[in-house]
Structures
1.
Amino acid sequence: MKLDSPYNGSGSLTREQFLFYEMRTTAKLMSEGMSDGETIQKIECENLFQYPTEKSVKGMARTCIARIHAMKNSSLTQALATQPSEVAKQICLYAIMKQRRLVWDFMVTVIGEKYRLMDTSFGKIDLNTFFMRLQEQDDSVAAWSASTVAKIKQVLVKILVENEYLDSIKANHINPVWLNQMLENEIRSNGDELALPAFNCFN
């Protein structure tokens, strides 16, 4: 298995998911100037994620912190904490794209391409084709079990539903989305223009 695969770690998407509530909670603490360690400690001690068991809290807090750091942008951390939820969700999507190359590639090469071609259809075939292509290109992805791939597909679809690209997990067409201007500016200032088609942004 290739150790330098850009998709290493993407298998953990099966349990990490989109984590909007957790991301917002974490961003609030970080934008107040807390260190990573203090943030994790506060989330854990006060059960800020409201999980029924404490077992997974620390791991999820670390995931949220890693995603926020992946954006390398303090303005977006602040915005994630304070903006209305539809804007914060877009920032959250950008953060998971930055942290997980697999989500980036899916959003840009599948969803962005759909918008570019004005093709609103969406279905299992799009997910299957995407993963088939990845498995051909990357030994690490090729080694994933069928159940891991199936779970990651579910996570990707849920991310689309959460951000209103899809009306439901059974939807067969993509809705148009509008990228918040502030986020567009920050994506550009980060040098990530390649991500813009994923947000239906071509100007």
2.
Amino acid sequence: MSTEEHAERFTLLRPLLFTIAYEILGSATESDDVLQDSYLRWAAVDLTTVRDSKAYLARLVTRQALNALRTSARRREDYVGPWLPEPLLLDESDASADLVLAESVSMAMLVLLETLTPDERAVFVLREVFGFGYDDVAAAVGKSVATARQIAHRAREHVRARRRRFEPVDAAQTTRITERFLTAAATGDLAGLLALLAPDATWTADGGGRTTAARRPVVGAEKVAAVLIRVFRLGQLADPRIEVATCNGAPAVVVYGGDRPEGVFLVEITDARITGVYAVRNPDKLTAVTVPRRISR
């Protein structure tokens, strides 16, 4: 088999493979590294032995992602303040219409997946999001099929118990709420923010010790509104600019100082109210937000 055949099969499946790695790792940068390493391994495979390229590559990428996750988990133990996933800027023509896929890469879901063990996370992603059979799931995590089924059940129950109960908000309503949020925050409109925020709204900021950010989540609409008004005073930034972009399957607010992103703010909306604001301000997590990605199931 030619090198071109390896490259063609991998390129065709790359959006899917990237999405699997990202949902396991919560980092676009680390996912790119996993895909690069996985391709080198794939290039050495005799393709005449591969019956199903999709299943084979999904197993390969999952194993590499799990190795990376276990390594990064040790680093996260020393992380300063809350750890949030790296924001994912989506290609405007991408699969936001796929509701299952959009929810699976949402910041709220990725934060929830952080509470699973590495094996539970990988099994949940492969089985519940991508629908792989238990044979493939078991091979990807190096477990028996019976054990993989037990892990899947445990992960499903864990996610179900912690996922918010809500009525789905359509894309147009989500965009309207996000734009009203942006206007209220940027103009210091306290009443406008309080009208949008749920009473128990939570602000979670990830500065990683690299920039000013609350070291613990802030809870309560009035406290969150006060933090937002303070954060969106942009006088300290050179040539400040605010844009709305599609990140993690929903509209997000990106703050720039010149051409450099200074923060990404993602809102979690439940029953047409903002229940969570995730502020990613660690500069190490903002480098990939300028590159649109394609995701796939």
3.
Amino acid sequence: MKDTCGTGPEGGVVVRIGPEWRRSDEAEWCHAVALRAAAGGLREAVVPLRTRDGRTVARAEGRPVSLWPYVAGRWAHQQDPAQSEQAARLLARLHRALAEARVPPRPVSADLTVGLSGDVRYDHPDLRDAELDEWLAGFAKRADRVHALHGDYYHGNLLADGHGRLVAVLDWDEALIAPPEVELAGAALEFTGEFAADLAACRGFVDAYLDEGGTVEALDDTTMVQLMRHRLRREAAHYLRASARGEAFDDEDHVYHAGRMAAFAALRP
């Protein structure tokens, strides 16, 4: 998604231009989740502006276009312990804000929900894991709560003010409906260093979320790491599909993918 800033920090507008393949109804659905989070009391939720007929998406040259209020700030720090705790507590409040939101099924399946029931067979041998598939199938049956989620909760979608206080949650394009444990585990992975190298820090992120009263009531370590591995596998599958299509990646991308694959193997319970 390409962002271009409008008239500046005071009353400014950000123009977001999406890819041609993104359907308008999919974008509208994701925007509706942001609007429901704000309506549910999440003051940090940045929501799109509406057109005169109530829509949040228009199309220009085949691409979805939306307008968003400009929010001054800087990206959150990925490995700052104080901001990581803030991010955990903010995520808890985000989940509470969406817990009772009534939204229809997502028009297009979110990638993170693919294989969440252990029902996808991966072509690449390094992504095959029958034990993980079996665990996911059991998790899907045990999960007693699902609701709308942000879907891409990481430091690049959070803004902090000059005092380090998190003030904005951006980019709802990957919003989905799933058990909140899925997002909590993924966020713990994102905010505690590269590829969950420090599981104690991951546990600390989860504990801060639980202390803040999110919609997840408990998350044991096995569930945490298996849901992390599900996320890593989905990201790896996306990378491999793009590579097969001929999409170009640089050396940094290749190194990151190698680290992701190593973590997927190392985190196996």
4.
Amino acid sequence: MTKNYDLVILGGGTGGYVAAIRASQLGLKTAIVEKDKLGGTCLHKGCIPSKALLRSAEVFKQTKEADQFGINTSDISLDFLKVQDRKEQIVSQLYQGVIGLVEKGLIDIYDGIGRVLGPSIFSPTAGTVSVEMKDGSDNEMLLSKNLIIATGSKPKLIENLKPDGTHILTSDEALNLKVLPKSIIIVGAGVIGVEWASMLADFDVNVTLVEYAEQILPTEDSAIAKEMQRLLKKKGIKIMTNAKVLSETVEKAHNVTIQVDYKNEKTTLTADQMLIAIGREPNTTEIGIENTDIQLEMSGSIRTNKDYQTKETHIYAIGDCIGGMQLAHVASHEGKHAVEHIAGNSPMHLNYHHIPTCIYSNPEVASVGLTETQAKDQGFQVKSGKVSFKAIGKALVYGESDGFVKIIADKKTNDLLGIHMIGPHVTELISEAGLAKVLDATPWEIGETIHPHPSLAEAMAEAALDVDGMKIHG
């Protein structure tokens, strides 16, 4: 059966369903094609379930350390099945909310696998979507004036280390563990690897973290990475940087053994399980790209212009499948921008230097803008300010005083270049930094903004004042 729409969206993840809702608000007849569940990776296999597990790990760790607050506890134990049940309840509640939002927008949902067709009897241009329905009914043919590809990404794998769901895992399988391992090797110390290392260590799992680059968190400011490494080691995590996993891997009945090139020597590592966390790659195969003139980058991501148009100008692409920052909040804003452009409006282009990034480990990390190395590489003369959370009363009250806030500015113009944080609840504090970047604030203006006392946000003010040597505390 053939149906006509103003807009069809291939993929119902965060970028896809947000774009669909905005399109509905603008009066466009819209459909979503989703092969799994609305909400996509973020809701079902990423952001939400992993943060639910991280929160349980945090509470477990805090409970074990309750005596420092004058609270006597005994017989503390972990019921990991209840931890998983809580995670599933949160995901289910949010999933029902997403369904409700889409239904409220009168958006049609097609449960099946969508593939983009080239010019055919259905349309003289590429972009018709053929949907192989999950219920086994006849394929649906969706003709639309415009198409948005929002197919997301999947875990990147290492050659010869195929996940089996038992010994070798990706984050997809790890999220559904029924029993925690006693030990685990995590390959990759980027955002995903560090979050899992922190979480599992707080659940009392013996963790070894293996990273190919010179530092963990390779995209973060070096000062942040150094502090995170110190604090992860404090948890008992073994960290190996400049380490390459070799192809020879031996799985055993109850554990996994791998060879690692570390410090120019072959080192053998053994653990109950191994988690591959080396990043994600775009889902751009088997969706019909070859039937169009759409161009792909070497990474497999879809090439677009600043309005997210592909070479087929009526076909747009957003989110993880175009590479870039691969964050849920980025995908949703890209989706809204694409829809505004389709509707004939003139939306502002996203400035990716204004977008905050967060790592929800314990401690948390958050940043916006350039690292100090990036700023210097781009020719800026930099000045910076830094304050430790040990100087912040609220952090001491919380019992979480590790970490700091660092602010980088242009010495010539006083413009903010980057704000980097590691410590308690910095994923909430970073929004002030993001607003400061958008408004082109100077460090002096942040420092002169009156922050309540006691609050963790005082660290932002003190670091800003320190850029010009004026901080009071610390």
